[in-house]
Amino acid sequence: MRKAVQIGLLSALTVTLLTGCGADFSADKDTVYIQKKGTIKGANVADFDKEYYDETELSDFIKETVDTYVEQAGEGTVEIQEFAVSDGVAHVYLNYAGAEDYAQFNGVKFYEGTVLDAKAEGYEIPDAFTSVTDDETTWDAEGNKIVIIGQQTQVKVDGTILFVSANASVTGKNTADVSYDILDEEAQPAYIVYK
Known about the structure:
This protein is an alpha+beta fold. Helix content is 24%, strand content 33%. The chain is built from four helices and twelve strands; from the N terminus they run H-E-E-H-E-E-H-E-H-E-E-E-E-E-E-E. It has helices spanning 2-14, 55-73, 99-106, 115-120; strands spanning 31-34, 40-47, 78-86, 89-96, 110-114, 130-131, 145-149, 153-157, 161-164, 168-172, 175-178, 190-194. The strands form two sheets. It has a seven-stranded mixed beta sheet. Strands 5-7-12-9-6 form a five-stranded antiparallel beta sheet. The N and C termini lie far apart (47 Å).
């Protein structure tokens, strides 16, 4: 039973396992942070307030999960930056070498790159977007980047968000909340275009 609780809690912390902590990035909810160089930071935040939760066991389980992935994918693909429990809340911060490692480690659809590259790789980008700025001529500019994500989380980018799909809502210049129901087989990923 205890192992099932650990797995359930780690799933809550890992399904959206987002990376990064420290001076440049912290989060009070699940967040994936796409940095300029293409590296990804992730933060997972979950309640850790049950008497039977064991911080050491969860820490060991997270380390074992990361180590298993790294054995298969290679050194530097995923790293634990921090695991901490404070005031009944657990924070897990991970660093990912890139979008592919984030997608594979978390078992989610995830792409980060330019709009043109996404199209070239066969991603079907929807026609309908909500514009965040008044300048709609910026949509397909060569320098614009896109995040495609099939996960309920907050997305943070190093840049300015220009457009979002219907299942994303802008919460700041460089942040958006994504709605995604993992139990809905027809759920579509969110698209966030930024510069």
